[in-house]
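Contributing new records

If you add data, match the layout below exactly. Sequence lines come first and carry their own label; structure lines follow with theirs. Keep one chain per record. Anything else will be rejected by the validation script.
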Amino acid sequence: MSPPARRDVFQAIADPTRRDILNLLVKKELNLKTIASHFKLSRPAISQQIKILTDCGLLRIDQQGRERFCYLQTKKMKEVSDWLEPFKQAWEMRYNQLDSLLDELQSKPK
């Protein structure tokens, strides 16, 4: 049996619950119980979501005594940022063109 395919960042952020978990961890590391308390899902369901985030490299889990804390691995999000960059540039170009058109229309005598 071959090992399961490794998930990628895009699969991980496709799910709204996983995005919400990432948003919680932007501010500070949290233990699994605290993360689960923010959701109506069962703890095993949240654990599964966290496993997916860990498998794709977006989270790291450290054991501290009896607690397991989740830490955001922001470096992995660079894949998303790099992929979005051409779209960002295209939209900025369009906004700049719109700004130029508006400036031109406002400068015309009435």
